[in-house]
Structures are given as structure tokens and as C-alpha cells.
Write a sequence for this structure.
């Protein structure tokens, strides 16, 4: 049993962010008052400035940064947009309200800040992430996509109206949406010893039905394809705060391998952010070598699958070990197998045979 | 030698049969063409006499209830010099009777159009034309007449005279037209005519009774063109033949005047003689007779006719080289050719008169810009003897002469004094008044020539102001006539479309207008419809140079405008965004009072662009 209830992680983060925003506000205020053009320093997210940090085992931004100044007429608009977003996030966080990317786009219009389209407002959100080094989830801004979690985990809400209320995540067999309130909740307590992240909702349901959470003392997380940031953040917290190892099951193809990699060491798109990775997460499968070993039914790869393999072979994280080897085997097979392929040998084959075998195997990674 | 007879149709009949050629193909086009012909004649008449034109055009339905096409009364009234009442029947009642055969720039050519319109009106409605003319400022003569198509002669139905105070001409015809379809073009034509004729006042009353008035914008007339001799590069064999006929003698017109003159010189005012007696009398007085009279007497001897007979014919050709006289017999409606007897004393008389000048004299006297030196050089080039009499030249020699005139390179370029461009100031004023633009510029190129025909290009450009932002629009004019049809294939359009406008800071659908005016003694029209100008390289070059000059002027304006716009935009941006930033910063930093940002708005607005 792990109990971290005394450690108010969410609260700490919130205070840190609010003080950062206030500091930015003060700077702007002072500049305006002294007849100076205010400016933001934004770490550059250009390809040249994204480097792989072997120590952190994730992509990070280099030292280059751009200045967005109100002095430059062509930047004045986006400067104001960024200032507005800081102001709006400040309100959201203080009032404990949550918002979506789409919401932000529309909310801006109440303040005569006009975004031309949602991609423009999404970009400004990433800018603020870079300025504050915090993911948008901490701004209470969430994407539309949601994934789920199930298992014996007790949480305590911090969202207004539910403060202090506790909930166990094994009460509802469909799992719990990893939404704003779950993301901001404190993790209180769990009996689980393992987190299994699985790529597909269908398999997630099967795992719950087959009592995988009990059989393997695990918390099951449905990543619904490429894991959203809130899900990656939850996986990290389960790993760091609750000390649970994380394993990943994804389709037996190049995309599945990369889903595991992103959970483990992040994506280039989020190079400006930390605390989204689980460096010790393990990729259980389906490996390319598993396809032959378990005689799985396969389908041929498409041209874009093959192109993706070549792209990933240039990524520094795929330069050695099993990651490199599996890419090579995929390229040799030119075929792929989905998680559902195990159903050929019975619906429970994946939970009864494959999962235990791979968990056993993983001890030696 | 056998006598041959040919049946000949009169010019009226020819045009009646081929009216499509002259723009009278259907009721819509015919109404538009008729308006054009009358208005252009009126303007030409005023130009010639340096009278500031005052034109009234009206189109009235005979029975407004009827559906189109229907009968319309078309009236055009001007304040021009009018026409001598003696000439009115011929001017409006015969085809090919005109005063525009000289070489100078005029709107219409040969004055065919007006008679064609009258002819068209007559054949579609069977109504006569009404002409009111006052040429002396005291009396106005009103003629109501029809055209005898077969005889090409006017038939006067009514003629009366009234007192008047001003000169001017009014022509009114009834014709079948379709105003519902032609209306737009007619209105465009009138308004564009006012643009290119800013010294004219034009009033148009349409069938609904609505009056559009285009007042006079400038009070000075542009200098009128002078009539000049043709340039050697600009003539073909047929023109040379006509010129030769013209030089060595004028075929005397056998009208009452001329016959009176002959009778007077022979002393026969009171009595009439037979052919033989008349010839005898002429022999006695020969040395006192004038040249036209000598010719007529000679002709009478060959044709063996008396004065009565003479009135029934028209002499078409006296061909000394081939020893033939051709004439038209009104009575028989036939053309006859008579052989000349070289032994007759009258032959020598005709030949002497008719063989005319030497080639050298012909060249220097009848063409512009040829002096004796050039003429001699030319004769050598053409391998023709300078002393050769042009009246006796054979067909082959004429063709050689014509070819050589085209090929000889040492002629000076054509004399542009026969051209009448509008001038930069009137054009500019016209454009300002017409479009009320934010920017306008005009340019007149110096004269140039293609194939012996001089031309001048004038162009104007206008931008912004009242001009709608619907893209570039081109107004084309030739010899002060708006060209409204067949825009696509026109050389001006080609030049304008070939321009890379982005180089001149013009983007998107600009509020931009180009006014192009080509003046020439002969506009190189592509089609008989005279609506689009062909792409001669010399013309293209002049148009392009004019357009580029104007586009550069526009670009300068656009840069200035751009800088001013930018400053304004800056000021607006800072005025909008800085207060917002202040509001956000105040709440973010937890301050109650907003920072003092006035200074920053001012700084932002005044700041030059810098990155």
C-alpha cells in the first residue's frame, strides 16, 4: 500500500504556475508604465532547437529562444493574444474551471482578441506552454480526446464542489475518463503493483472482464491510440508518485512501437515540456518477433507504414537495442499484426497466455 | 471590235444587299450603329469648323406598347455648320456622296454610315428621312425624302424653308430597332463618347423619356487635323490609280452647273445647237475655253451627243492608254465603253490633258515628304523613267510603281499633322470628371507610323476614388470613337493583360481604369465591324511604352499611399491592442489600477517598421 495523501502535488503545481503568471504580468505592467515595449521570451520550437537529452531520456528544447515584442507591429497581435491567454489561464486556474482547445478559440472573442481559426489559438497555447514550461493541462485546458483508467486506485478531487471527495477507480467497469477533474486529483492510495497501458478500448474492456486488474494486481489504462498528454501525465504520476512500474501493450506495427516510445520518452512536439514521460516504462509488445513466435495472423504493411519505419530509424532513440531490432524485423516482414490477432487462438488467449509470458520476459529487459 | 455591255448595280443597291457589312445585321446592332453614325457625323462636322459641339440624341418608340423589335424615331441634332441646302438631297439621299475622301483623321470614313442608316430605316419601316439644315444662320431648310435605291438618287417628298437663328443640322429617321437589347450599349456609347470628347455637351433622351446630360468639361477644342497628301508607304495600286485619274484631270461632274458653264463659255446660254454645230463653235473659241470645258467638248465629240444626251450619262473613266471611254447611261441603266479614235483631233486634246504629269512631278506634288532628290532616287530604284507621263502608264508599270513605293526605304516617316489627338490636358480633365479617381495620370506618345499611316497613342490611367474594386477595366477609343464590341481580341487588351501588374504594386481586383486612345488616318481594325484593333508591332510598341510609363507613375503613387496606409494601420493597431495588454497585465499582476500606457500608444504609432 502506498499512500501519498500528504503530498499535495497538484496544489503545489498550481501555486507555482500562478506565481509564474503573476511575475509575467508584473513585468508587462512595469514595462507599460515606464513607456517600454513589453516582450515575451519564448523558447524556440524550431526543428534546429529540438535535441534528444540522453540523461533525461526525452526530447528537450535547446537554448535558442525567440522574442515576441509589442514593439514589432507584425508581432503586436500575437503578443496581445499571448498576454490574453496568460490572463485567461490565470482566471481559469484561480477559479478552478476547465476549458477545451475549442473553448479557448471562442472565449477569446469576448475580449476582442480575434483568432483567425483554432490552429492559431492552439499555437498560442503551445507558446504559453513553452514560456511557463507547463503542459496545457495545468492551465486547465484539455483536448477533446479522452482515454480511460480502471483499477484499484483511490483519488481525492481538488476541483470546486468536489474538494476532498474520494473515489475508487475500480467501481465502474467501463473505466473512468481521464478528464480535468481526474488529472487535477491527488493520488491517494492503491493496492496495485503494476500499470498496464493498452492501445485499444476493446482490449481494455476485455482486460477488465478477464479481471486482469486482480490477476496481475494492476491498474489498466486505455491510451486510445497515441496517449494524450493527460494520460501520459497520469502514467508518469502513477510511476513517480505511487512507484508503480508501467508496461505497454500496443499493436504489432511501427505505430504501436512508437506509442510505447512516446509514453516512455515523449514526442518532439512536446519537447518544451517535462514531466510527461515514464522513462522506465516497458514495451511488452506486440513485437515484430512476436508475430512469428506466436504465429499471429498478419496483414501487409502499407507504403506509409514502411516510410514511417525509415523515418523512425533516423530517431536517436531507435539506434540501439530492442527498439532498433524490432524496426528491422518489421521492415523485413513487411507485415503487421494487431492486438486482436490473438483472438484466433481464443478470446482469452491474450490475457491467459501472451500477457503472463511477456510479463515474465520483461523482468529480464 | 465588239461593243460590250455590262449590267451594273448602283452603290445603294450594293449596300442594300450587303448591309451586314456595315453593321446593320439585326435590329439591336442596327439601332446602335445608326446612333453611332449620326453622332459621329455631328461631332466630325463641329470639329471641322472648330465649333464646340452641342449634341442632342433622342430615341422614341413610335408605339411604346409594342414589344421589341419595333419602330423607333432616332433624332440627332447638332450645332455644327449645317449643310448647304443645295447639297442636302445628295448628301443624305445618295450612297457614296461625301466630303470625307481627303486624308486626315476623322471618326467616320467616307460618310457611308449615315446614308446606310437612312437606307436601313427606309427598308425596315418605309418611312422617309427628315433633314433640317441651317448653314447660314438665317434660314433652315427642311427636307423629307426617300432614297431611290436602284438609281441611287434622292426622292424629295417635301421641302420647306423657315427662319432660323443658329446653324446646325438635325437628322431624324424611323427604323426598326430593339432598344431593350441595344440600350446598354447605346448608353455606354454615349457616356464613353463624353469621356473622349470632353469639349462636347451631349444630351441623350432614351425611349422612357429619361434624359442623361453630359456637360462640357473643357472649353478649348483640340487643334483640328489638316488634310494632307498620302505617304508613299500607305498607298496600294488602286489608290495610285485613283490618284492618277485625279491628277491628270477631274472627271467633270455633268450636273446642271457644269453644263451651264460649258454653255456659257461657248456663248450658248440662250440657244441650243446640235452636236455638229456645237463642235464647230467650240473649235473657233478653243483657245479661250477652260480645261474642264475642253474635256467635255471632246467627250461630246466622241460620244456624239448633244447637251440633252449629256445629261443622261455619267462619265466613269477616260483611259487614254487603252483608248477607251467608259460611261454610265442612266436611261438604260447600263455601262458602255466607246473606243477613242487616235486620229481625231480631240484625241490629242484628251491625251494631252489626260496623260498628265511626269512621274517626277506626280511623286513630288502628290505625296507627302518626297522632294525632287528622293523622287529621282526612287525612279532609279523602281526602274521607271522620271519623265514618263503617268497617264500613259500600263497596268504592269502601275503595279511596279506601287510595289516600289512600298519597298523603297528612303522615304521620310509620315507627317502626323493630319492627326488630331485629344491632348493630355483635356484627356486628364475628362478622366477626372468621369471617374473621380484618387489618382490619375495621362500620357501622349509622339507620333509613329505603321505601313505609311501615321498614328498617335494617348493613354490615361486612373485608380481608386469612385472606381469600384472590381478589377482592371479598359476603355478603348480609336479616333475619338468608343470601341465597345469584340474586346477580347483587341491589341490594347493584349498589352494590358501582358503587363505584370504586381511589379507596379497593383494586386487583386484593383479599382483601376485604363483609357486608351489611338489616332490614325487608318486604324488597323481587325474586322469590318471596326470594333477591335489589330496587333501591329509598331502600335504594340507605342501602347506598351505608354502603359509602362503610366504604370510607373501609379506605382509611385501606390508606394506613397502604402506608406500612409501603413502609418495609419500602425496607429490603429497600437490604439487597439495596447489598452488590452494593459488590462490583462493589471489583472495578472493583481494591480487595481491599469498602467499608464498612453505614451506607449504614441510611441507605437510613430515607430518606423523594425524587426
Amino acid at each position: 500500500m502506498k499512500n501519498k495523501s500528504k503530498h499535495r502535488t497538484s496544489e503545489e503545481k498550481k501555486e507555482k504556475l500562478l506565481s509564474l503568471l503573476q511575475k509575467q504580468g508584473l513585468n508587462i505592467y512595469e514595462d507599460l508604465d515606464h513607456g517600454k515595449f513589453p516582450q515575451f521570451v519564448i523558447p524556440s520550437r524550431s526543428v534546429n532547437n529540438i535535441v534528444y537529452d540522453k540523461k533525461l531520456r526525452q526530447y528537450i528544447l535547446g537554448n535558442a529562444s525567440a522574442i515576441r515584442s509589442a514593439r514589432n507591429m507584425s508581432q503586436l497581435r500575437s503578443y496581445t493574444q499571448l498576454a490574453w491567454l496568460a490572463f485567461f489561464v490565470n482566471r481559469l486556474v484561480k477559479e478552478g474551471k476547465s476549458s477545451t482547445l475549442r473553448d479557448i478559440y471562442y472565449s477569446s472573442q469576448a475580449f476582442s482578441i480575434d483568432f483567425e481559426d483554432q490552429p492559431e489559438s492552439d499555437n498560442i497555447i503551445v507558446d504559453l506552454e513553452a514560456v511557463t514550461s507547463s503542459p496545457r493541462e495545468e492551465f486547465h485546458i484539455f483536448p477533446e480526446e479522452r482515454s480511460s483508467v480502471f483499477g484499484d486506485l483511490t483519488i481525492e478531487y481538488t476541483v470546486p464542489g468536489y474538494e476532498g471527495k474520494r473515489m475508487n477507480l475500480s467501481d465502474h467497469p467501463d473505466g473512468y475518463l481521464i478528464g480535468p477533474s481526474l488529472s487535477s486529483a491527488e493520488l491517494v492510495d492503491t493496492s496495485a503493483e503494476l500499470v498496464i497501458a493498452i492501445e485499444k478500448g476493446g482490449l481494455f474492456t476485455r482486460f477488465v472482464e478477464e479481471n486482469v486488474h486482480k490477476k496481475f494486481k494492476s491498474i489498466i489504462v486505455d491510451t486510445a491510440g497515441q496517449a494524450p498528454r493527460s494520460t501520459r501525465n497520469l502514467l508518469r504520476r502513477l510511476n513517480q508518485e505511487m512507484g508503480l512500474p508501467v508496461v505497454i501493450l500496443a499493436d504489432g506495427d511501427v505505430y504501436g512501437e512508437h506509442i510505447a516510445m512516446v509514453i516512455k520518452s515523449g514526442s518532439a512536439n512536446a519537447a518544451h515540456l517535462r514531466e510527461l514521460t515514464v522513462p522506465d516504462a516497458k514495451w511488452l509488445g506486440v513485437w515484430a518477433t512476436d508475430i512469428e513466435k506466436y504465429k499471429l495472423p498478419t496483414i501487409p504493411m502499407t507504403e506509409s507504414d514502411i516510410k514511417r519505419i525509415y523515418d523512425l530509424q533516423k530517431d536517436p532513440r531507435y539506434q540501439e537495442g530492442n527498439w532498433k531490432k524490432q524496426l528491422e524485423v518489421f521492415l523485413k516482414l513487411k507485415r503487421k499484426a494487431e492486438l486482436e490477432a490473438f483472438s484466433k487462438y481464443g478470446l482469452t488467449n491474450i490475457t491467459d497466455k501472451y500477457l503472463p509470458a511477456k510479463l515474465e520476459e520483461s523482468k529480464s529487459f | 471590235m465588239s461593243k460590250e455591255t455590262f449590267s451594273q448595280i448602283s452603290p445603294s443597291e450594293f449596300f442594300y444587299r450587303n448591309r451586314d457589312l456595315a453593321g446593320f445585321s439585326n435590329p439591336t446592332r442596327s439601332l446602335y450603329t445608326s446612333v453611332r453614325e449620326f453622332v459621329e457625323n455631328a461631332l466630325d462636322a463641329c470639329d471641322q469648323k472648330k465649333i464646340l459641339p452641342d449634341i442632342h440624341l433622342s430615341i422614341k418608340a413610335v408605339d411604346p406598347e409594342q414589344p421589341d423589335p419595333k419602330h423607333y424615331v432616332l433624332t440627332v441634332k447638332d450645332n455644327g455648320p449645317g449643310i448647304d441646302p443645295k447639297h442636302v438631297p445628295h448628301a443624305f439621299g445618295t450612297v457614296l456622296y461625301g466630303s470625307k475622301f481627303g486624308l486626315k483623321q476623322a471618326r467616320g470614313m467616307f460618310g457611308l454610315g449615315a446614308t446606310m442608316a437612312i437606307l436601313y430605316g427606309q427598308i425596315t419601316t418605309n418611312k422617309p428621312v427628315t433633314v433640317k439644315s441651317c448653314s447660314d444662320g438665317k434660314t433652315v431648310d427642311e427636307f423629307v425624302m426617300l432614297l431611290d435605291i436602284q438609281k441611287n438618287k434622292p426622292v424629295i417628298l417635301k421641302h420647306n424653308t423657315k427662319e432660323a437663328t443658329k446653324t446646325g443640322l438635325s437628322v431624324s429617321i424611323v427604323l426598326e430597332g430593339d432598344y431593350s437589347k441595344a440600350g446598354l450599349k447605346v448608353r455606354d456609347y454615349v457616356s464613353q463618347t463624353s469621356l473622349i470628347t470632353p469639349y462636347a455637351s451631349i444630351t441623350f433622351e432614351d425611349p422612357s423619356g429619361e434624359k442623361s446630360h453630359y456637360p462640357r468639361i473643357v472649353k478649348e477644342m483640340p487643334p483640328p487635323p489638316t488634310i494632307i497628301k498620302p505617304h508613299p508607304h500607305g498607298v496600294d495600286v488602286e489608290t495610285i490609280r485613283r490618284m492618277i485619274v485625279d491628277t491628270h484631270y477631274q472627271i467633270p461632274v455633268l450636273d446642271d452647273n457644269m453644263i451651264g458653264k460649258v454653255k456659257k463659255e461657248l456663248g450658248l446660254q440662250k440657244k441650243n445647237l446640235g452636236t455638229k454645230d456645237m463642235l464647230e463653235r467650240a473649235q473657233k473659241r478653243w483657245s479661250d475655253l477652260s480645261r474642264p470645258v475642253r474635256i467635255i467638248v471632246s467627250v461630246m465629240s466622241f460620244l456624239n451627243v448633244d447637251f440633252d444626251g449629256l445629261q443622261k450619262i455619267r462619265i466613269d473613266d477616260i483611259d487614254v492608254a487603252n483608248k477607251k471611254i467608259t460611261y454610265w447611261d442612266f436611261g438604260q441603266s447600263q455601262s458602255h465603253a466607246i473606243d477613242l479614235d487616235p486620229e481625231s483631233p480631240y484625241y490629242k486634246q484628251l491625251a494631252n490633258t489626260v496623260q498628265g504629269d511626269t512621274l517626277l512631278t506626280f511623286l513630288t506634288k502628290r505625296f507627302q515628304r518626297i522632294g525632287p532628290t528622293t523622287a529621282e532616287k526612287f525612279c532609279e530604284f523602281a526602274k521607271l523613267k522620271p519623265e514618263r507621263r503617268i497617264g500613259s502608264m500600263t497596268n504592269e508599270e502601275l503595279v511596279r510603281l506601287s510595289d516600289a513605293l512600298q519597298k523603297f526605304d528612303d522615304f521620310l516617316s509620315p507627317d502626323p499633322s493630319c492627326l488630331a489627338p485629344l491632348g493630355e490636358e483635356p484627356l486628364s480633365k475628362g478622366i477626372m470628371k468621369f471617374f473621380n479617381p484618387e489618382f490619375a495620370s495621362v500620357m501622349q506618345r509622339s507620333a509613329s507610323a505603321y505601313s505609311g499611316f501615321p498614328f498617335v497613342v494617348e493613354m490615361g490611367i486612373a485608380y481608386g476614388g469612385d472606381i469600384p474594386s472590381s478589377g482592371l477595366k479598359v476603355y478603348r477609343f480609336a479616333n475619338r470613337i468608343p470601341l465597345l464590341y469584340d474586346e477580347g481580341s483587341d491589341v490594347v487588351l493584349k498589352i494590358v493583360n501582358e503587363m505584370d501588374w504586381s511589379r507596379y504594386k497593383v494586386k487583386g481586383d484593383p479599382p483601376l481604369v485604363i483609357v486608351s486612345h489611338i489616332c490614325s488616318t487608318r486604324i488597323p481594325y481587325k474586322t469590318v465591324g471596326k470594333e477591335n484593333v489589330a496587333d501591329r508591332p509598331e502600335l504594340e510598341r507605342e501602347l506598351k511604352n505608354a502603359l509602362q510609363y503610366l504604370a510607373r507613375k501609379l506605382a509611385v503613387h501606390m508606394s506613397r499611399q502604402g506608406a500612409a496606409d501603413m502609418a495609419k494601420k500602425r496607429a490603429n493597431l497600437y490604439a487597439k491592442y495596447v489598452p488590452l495588454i494593459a488590462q490583462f497585465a493589471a489583472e495578472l499582476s493583481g494591480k487595481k489600477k491599469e498602467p499608464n500606457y498612453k505614451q506607449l500608444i504614441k510611441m507605437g504609432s510613430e515607430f518606423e517598421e523594425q524587426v
